[in-house]
Amino acid sequence: MSLFWDGGFLFWLTVALTVAAVFVFLDRLLRLRKIAIDPQDFLQGIFTVLDKGQTDEALAICDETPGPLAALVAEAVTHRDSDEEHLREILATTAHAELSRLERRTMLLSLFAQILPLIGLIGTFVGGYAALSAIDAAAPLVQPGAAVRAAAGALATTIAGLVGAAFCYAGHYVLVMKTDALSLHMDTCVALTLDYLSRNPDLGADVPEEAEDVAAE
User: Fold this and answer.
1) Considering its fold, how many domains does the chain have in total?
2) What is the DSSP string of the chain?
3) For 34-44, what is each residue's pLDDT tens digit?
4) Is 148 among the domain residues?
């Protein structure tokens, strides 16, 4: 246990960054799990509502559903009267903004993964220098205690940096894989929504109450 207490400031810096990386990873993972919805089921429900002409209700469902899939559908329904090329540009811009928002904190893990080994390496050199200084100061009657403590601190910082970096690399990989899967769902959502709107060019306002009464009769 004294190995870690001898690590000094750089050791505890690596520990703090690793703890921060754990919080970032858990926050992003929970966020991705929260917004993970089945695009087929979600779109089927939206299309069913739109078939009744209830665009306001469809937009309300999108507003209540978290995540980029609902945001894309809401943009498509809102700008349904635009030509296809312009609508594709709007959806591409929305998708880019949503993905950028999701990836913003994820990049912190990549940053930590690169910084932590460097801090560990710096700690190694600092500890080695301290060990040599202790030996030089005690020469010719060298007392191994101070040199060993300095070397132990260097080793503790190196271990902490490598362990933290390994976690950051693994966490970043997991988040990237989940974000890529979400990106594929977004592409599917855009394609199906555009196909639906192209087959329903007259999609408009809610069905009037008189029409609903006639249909009921």
Assistant:
1) 1
2) -HHHHTTHHHHHHHHHHHHHHHHHHHHHHHHHHHT---HHHHHHHHHHHHHTT-HHHHHHHHHHS-SHHHHHHHHHHHTTTS-HHHHHHHHHHHHHHHHHHHHHHHHHHHHHHHHHHHHHHHHHHHHHHHHHHHHHHHTTS--HHHHHHHHHHHHHHHHHHHHHHHHHHHHHHHHHHHHHHHHHHHHHHHHHHHHHHHH-TT--SPPPHHHHHHHH-
3) 888 888 888 99
4) yes
